[in-house]
Automatic annotation (TrEMBL):
The lineage of its organism: Bacteria, Bacillati, Actinomycetota, Actinomycetes, Pseudonocardiales. Residues 3-60 form the HTH lysR-type domain. One of its GO terms (cellular component) is protein-DNA complex. Keywords: DNA-binding, Transcription, Transcription regulation. This is DNA-binding transcriptional LysR family regulator.
Length: 339
């Protein structure tokens, strides 16, 4: 057997994890498969790299010499792939969930003038698969926090949190609760709802909240396939819905929920597939765009600027303390659905 770059990555992951079981989880491999692969690698290098014990694995003297070299090999290989990918194709294929505003593509292209930006709208799970296959360079996906039933993200992919955004209540503009600053579970127990279909990434969020209501089986008027459809039922049928502020539409009202529900907007990519400079420009462009978009939603923008510690990833893009931003007392939010 000849050593390959993938073998170097396996050894590096084992060393970082400190146990075969933890490394297997990170690599999404069955533990017996990883153990067999390690044996083949050790046979190729002529000796054991790790000592196994009930407490995990530790490097042998041979491992102490070879593991740093193998880790360096994997890191250098990633850098080569990133450089070759950025120079050879000149194309950055970017995936986004629900729908992709024209202004988002324009913002990314303006921030990355040396590459051609191509965008595609995909379900988060399909986006992750496309990134894994190399069909997408990167994707922006939503990942709700502290909610059961959310599919874990492939641990071999690199990830960066763009922002943690709250999940709010969307209501018809004329609804009695629409003028409140916040609502609690007590207020929501008697509402009629539009819910996302099972299998949609947002469905577990709704189920999580419904289980906590005083009436855990609320009336559901309709099961929607996406955010835009759900917002149309809020507007036309008088239903209530959960939504991220940037996922709502301008013809509904948004009210913050005292229940601390949040969803992370994550950028995911294959390690080594994006040059570090391009990656930093992409992350900054996404955060800047998010803030620019949030400004079109007055109630949310005021919430963000009054609570900057809730948005640590946006620290460089939110106004400095003391800077004044106009409020809109009518909450006439001139925006459309985003991610």
């Amino acid at each position: 057997m000849h050593l390959e770059i993938r073998h170097a990555r396996v050894v590096m992951t084992l060393a970082e994890a400190g146990s075969i079981s933890k490394a297997a989880a990170k690599l999404s491999l069955p533990q017996p498969s990883l153990t067999a692969q390690l044996r083949r690698i050790e046979k190729a290098v002529g000796g054991d790299l790790f000592v196994r014990s009930a407490f995990g694995i530790t490097p042998t003297p041979l491992g102490e010499r070879l593991i740093p070299m193998l880790a360096d090999l994997a890191t250098r290989a990633d850098a080569v792939v990133a450089e070759a990918s950025s120079l050879a194709s000149g194309i950055l294929r970017f995936g986004n969930a629900e729908w992709t505003p024209v202004t988002l593509r324009r913002a990314l292209q303006a921030s990355l003038p040396s590459v051609e930006v191509q965008t595609v709208t995909l379900d988060p799970a399909l986006s992750i698969e496309a990134v894994n296959r190399g069909e997408l360079t990167a994707a922006l996906i939503s990942s709700p926090e502290a909610v059961d039933g959310i599919r874990p993200i492939d641990p071999t992919l690199a990830k960066e949190i763009i922002v943690r955004e709250p999940i709010w209540l969307a209501l018809p503009r004329e609804h009695a609760l629409a003028r409140r600053t916040t609502v609690s579970r007590r207020h929501m127990a008697a509402l009629s709802w539009v819910q996302h279909v099972q299998g949609h990434w947002f469905h577990p969020v709704e189920e999580h909240l419904f289980r906590k209501l005083d009436h855990p089986t609320p009336e559901v008027l309709h099961y929607a396939g996406g955010h835009a459809e759900a917002m149309s039922w809020v507007r036309d049928a008088g239903a209530a819905a959960l939504a991220t502020p940037t996922g709502s539409t301008s013809d509904v009202s948004l009210v913050a929920i005292t229940e601390p529900l949040r969803s992370r907007l994550l950028l995911v990519w294959r390690p080594g597939s994006i040059h570090p400079n391009t990656l930093r420009q992409l992350i900054d462009a996404l955060r800047r765009y998010y803030c620019d978009y949030a400004r079109t939603i007055p109630r949310y923008w005021n919430w963000m600027t009054e609570r900057p510690t809730d948005f640590p990833e946006l620290a460089n893009f939110l106004p400095r303390p003391g800077r004044w931003w106009p409020r809109d007392p009518t909450d006439a939010e001139p925006h459309t659905a985003s991610s």
